[in-house]
Design brief:
Layout (H helix, E strand, L loop, with lengths): L1 E9 L3 H8 L2 H4 L5 E10 L2 E10 L2 E11 L3 E8 L4 E11 L2 E11 L6 H29 L6
Antiparallel strand pairs: 1-7, 2-3, 3-4, 4-5, 5-6, 6-7
Length: 147
């Protein structure tokens, strides 16, 4: 299993950060995610297909987002990987909200798994850093709610 993580301070309240995480347009600027198609929103859950790429290799996963007070969990329901999970953690800080995004990949390639993990670790880390930067820009650009 490969785990990568990145953290940034977002100069916006937690609710705006959470809205950015759940907004399909927030992910697709300069990240590995090309498009997100939302299929269903109900209560604290969202089901979507994430279309992405690893260089020239394109794939998609069906995922469910579960929204909590301080986190949004993303669980792969189907896709090419044996397993994929992600979490977006939000913690109020002076000056805004600390956003931590962690992704856990299980490529499912038996003894080749650790080799693949080492080969892809830098790419995966770079993509997670790009995603938190895109989410920061989206949350900070969102208008403040009306009083």
């Amino acid at each position: 299993m490969m785990v990568v993580e990145a953290t940034t301070l977002v100069r916006a309240p937690r609710e705006r950060v959470r809205e950015a995480v759940l907004d399909p347009a927030s992910y697709t600027s300069d990240t590995k995610v090309a498009q997100i198609t939302v299929h269903e929103r109900s209560g604290n859950r969202l089901r979507a297909t994430l279309h992405g790429h690893l260089g020239p290799i394109h794939s998609a996963i069906e995922a469910e987002y579960t929204v909590g007070d301080e986190r949004v969990d993303l669980t792969m329901l189907s896709g090419r990987l044996r397993g994929f999970r992600a979490v977006f953690l939000t913690e109020e800080r002076e000056g805004g909200t600390q956003l931590t995004h962690r992704e856990e990949y299980d490529f499912g390639y038996g003894p080749m798994g650790p080799v693949l993990d080492r080969v892809l670790r830098r790419w995966a880390h770079t993509t997670v850093v790009a995603e938190v930067a895109a989410l920061r820009r989206a949350a900070e650009a969102s208008p403040a709610p009306a009083p």
